[in-house]
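Folding follows sequence. Below is one example:
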Amino acid sequence: MDSSIRTLIKAVAWIGAAMVVIVVFHLGGTIALHIGQFSPLTGAFIGGGLVLFSATYSRSRNDITEPWIGLEQVSWILIGFGIILWGCGDSFWRYYVSQNQTPFPSIADIGYSSFPILVFTGLLLQPAADEQGKRIVLIMDSLISMGSIFALAWYLLLGSLAQAAGEANLAKFLGLYYPIADIALLSCIIFLLLRGQGRIYQSTARRASLLVLGLGLCFFVGSDFLFNIQQNAGTYVEATWVDLGWPLGMMTMGIAACMRRFLPATSEEVIQQRQELLEEQTNLTPMQFVPYALLGLLFVALALDVMAPNNGQNVIRPVLLFATIGVVALVVTRQIYTMWENMRLTQRQAEALASLERANQRVAEQSHQIAEYNAELERGIEHLKDVQANLANGNLRARATLTNGALLPLAGSLNLMADRLSR
């Protein structure tokens, strides 16, 4: 990676660290307040600018970085535009707040609502891993995660938002849209991390950028989710540590784009070694436990909902119950499919072993035939040598007695020579 790009990434990291220190520890009094207010806007334009710069930076003939695959470059451009539009929405939000006007719902929501659509589309356009046999399992794991996250969000936030009275239709729609969009983003990044075990993701640039991108989305969604909960409860206070997830998440996504574009390409030998090592590993990875961990949290939420004395929980309980049943059904389906896949693999292995046994048997038969042929050839050679020795010693009555085999023409020629010598 070029030294200037390294310096740029370090500068962004220092800006994020300064935001955290100033906002969390309230350094500077009103300065901390202003930095906390404008940190999401600053982080959006820094992160979006980094993503667009990295995605559109032209490649030279001697470029040693990893090339783009398919629509991968378009994917990062969409993510960059999504971050920039979020920053534009936050600019309108800041304007409405400064004018003591209600910022929700407003024009700011056009920019805010564009972010999950563009980023989700960009994530879907990321190159697919070449694990064809595991695609169905990964899709089911992603659906399990999405259903669990949706049910948990319904228990924590969406249920109370859906039954809130007195709000305008647009405000209620947006209040439900943002958490559901966050759920979709989290589910998509979980799917990408689960499927990122293929050959193309063994390159350092793609693997590292995918992990950092997922980390940035987790920061962003965390702040978004906490904001929605506090906003719904009427306890949200601006310019606190809750807001830091937005700028840190978007700047982290910008760093991920820089890593994807400017990290050196990984050689084919290293990729092959990593792929073989991955195929040899039989231990479960932590990412494979994510759907089941979410399912466990879902059962905890359902138990708390059932035991809650509040009558308001009865309203959200049916959706939570049906979501839990749906997730459990997906888990059972996944296990059945896994068992069927294992049975099919076992059958294929048995057929392969049978074919190998038949091939070994044919090889053994051919080896036996070759051994018999060699023995017969050796006996024929010894017999012809004896006949030749007798003829050389003056025994002109010596004749070859071979009746078949590869040496029969040679025996006939030797007998003909002996007949001529006798005459």
